[in-house]
Amino acid sequence: MMSTIGWVGLGNMGRPMTANLVKAGHTVNGYDLVPEAVAAAAEHGVNPVNSIAEAVAGADIVFTMLPKGEHARTAYLEPDGVLANADTKTLLVDSSTIDFDSARVLHAEAAKAGFRLVDGPVSGGVTGAEAGTLTFMLGGADADVEEARPFIEAMAGNIFHAGGDAAGQAAKIVNNMMLSISLQGVVEGAVLAERFGLDPKVFYDIAKVSSGDSWPLRTWYPVPGVTTTSAANNDFKPGFATALMHKDVGLALAGAETQGVDLPAAALVHAQLQKLMDEDLGGLDTTALIKNIDPNAEGLPK
User: Fold this and answer.
1) Can you tell me the distance from the alpha carbon of 296 to that of 302, in angstroms, rounded to the nearest whole number?
2) Angle between helices 35-42 and 14-23 (to 10 degrees)
3) Which of 57, 62, 51, 54 is nearest to 18 (CA)?
4) Active site (catalytic) residues
5) Torsion of CA 81, 132, 170, 120, to 10 degrees
6) Which helix (H) or strand (E) holds 61?
7) CA 188 to each of CA 125, 202, 207, 297: distance values in angstroms, whole numbers, following the listed order
8) Closest by Cα among 126, 96, 69 to 283
């Protein structure tokens, strides 16, 4: 059934996600604070609007895709935001990746205002958003998750109901923390293998069928010409930007502090990502972590 969808946040992820909803036959009313982002989304069939109130008006479901917890809180809780302007019959889905505490606040405030809300962060980056193969991790009541599912299917390769309120955010934060730790091992291994004189492709072929195998090894190996999906083939232009990974690992560390958990490996990787941020390299792909091990790594912008 074709529906009217309100969408808030048309950045690098929101833009291709809404394009897939339009392709599926839905009407998408899209809003972003950046006019250029709205114009770019309009080129792919999104109906551009000038406010959150216009985006949510008459919507069957509303999605938000925003950078940080403070942006999500503003979009939902301010007088010109979602809760003040949407119909309480409208299902709300926040697909931003935000801190666990903010996600719980959004659930609580939505419920207080008479709304149903699902937290639904995604994994798969811009490439997955464009291909419609994102993994959605959903937190909320069973009935609400099932109501959201048909809309999400146009954007997803995998859909998981992680649990109750904020469970989707918890799953996303932990998953990306694990990804970053695995990636740190891959960039260190890639440099050490090269210094030992191993051919990168030969070592890659060995590792991917051995105990050193991992998703970032197979998908993001940080040496040009080894695997076709690596950002190293394209001057480390971001599929998953360093700044975003820095944020996500920071969310894991913040959450771990509230839960009384020590995460030494995550802290190490966060410090490595911080080095890149300090050099104004947050716009490079996360695999640019190899620069901290080998400043002259092939493929890095000079």
Assistant:
1) 9
2) 30
3) 62
4) 172
5) 30
6) strand 61-64
7) 23, 16, 13, 12
8) 126
